[in-house]
Amino acid sequence: MGMTIYDRYAPLYDGSGQVRFALLTHVYLGELLARHPVAGWSALDVACGTGTLVALLTAEGWAVTGVDASPQMLAQASAKLAGAARLVEGDMRRLDAILPPAVFDLATCTYDSLNYLLDAADLAACFAGVARALRPGGLFVGDMNTRHFLEHDWPPCEIREDEGYVQIERAAFDPETAVSTLLLSGFVGDDEGGYERFDEVHRERGYPPAEVDALLAAAGLAVEARYDGFTLSPPGPHSQRIFWVARKPADGG
């Protein structure tokens, strides 16, 4: 079974409904920026995927750089953006190796991309890279699935059917590691010509919110707010997704 994620899935990603999250995030981001304003129009999208959020921000007038580790996802983003934004292939844990310091007013990392960092040291490295890339006074907005969602609310089996594509997801949660393992099987084709199958393994870890707060603070990012996903209310014990809003101090410290 193939273990590399987003290689065969990348061309099917938007069509399988994943694009909806970026559309919703874009609207919500506007609400967050009204509450937590930034001074300029330079943005970084970490784990940008197929570039839908990058495209939406670019259309608003942002100068956007998108970073992703998957060349297949970046190929989709490149076709979508047609040169309108800068795309960089790279590891979200090694942003200092691919980005200049102190150039972005806004940095985003959405759609539970942070949950894919299964070790706290990796999460800390990502936050440190984001902090380095932000200008003083710059803002970071990132979301994570909660442990509650991964353990109790993520369906153990989901099937999605579209013309020419069937997707089966099976999820299992390990309470010892707080990691949910999702097995994604996709079938591309039709009844006449047959289907080609591919398999991917997606793992996400649920972190205690206090630990995320501490890691952000250690990276030099001051948490301004935590929100229950897509609302302006604080998260509760049954929140499925939490958005963090954290700022690099204006004095550069």
Kindly describe this structure.
The protein is α/β, with parallel strands linked by helices. 26% of the residues lie in helices and 34% in strands. The chain contains six helices and eleven strands. A seven-stranded mixed sheet has the order 3-2-1-4-5-11-10, sandwiched between helices. Strands 6-7-8-9 form a four-stranded antiparallel sheet, covered by helices on one side. The chain is globular, with a radius of gyration of 18 Å. The model has no long low-confidence stretch (mean pLDDT 91).
Beta-strand percentage range: 25-35%
In terms of quaternary structure, what is this?
Answer: single chain
Second CATH tier, the architecture of the largest domain: 3-Layer(aba) Sandwich
Strand order of the largest sheet: 3-2-1-4-5-11-10
Average pLDDT taken over every residue: 91
Radius of gyration: 18 Å
Outline the low-pLDDT stretches: none
Look up the CATH topology of the largest domain.
Rossmann fold
Shape summary: globular
Count of DSSP helices? 6
Q: Sheet with the most strands?
A: 7 strands, mixed
Total beta strand runs? 11
Counting helices, strands and paired strands, the structural category is: alpha/beta
In the residues, how many domains can be counted?
2
Instruction: State the CATH superfamily name of the largest domain.
Output: Vaccinia Virus protein VP39
Order of helices and strands: HEHEHEEHEHEEEEHEE
What is the straight-line distance between the termini?
47 Å
* CATH hierarchy class name of the largest domain: Alpha Beta
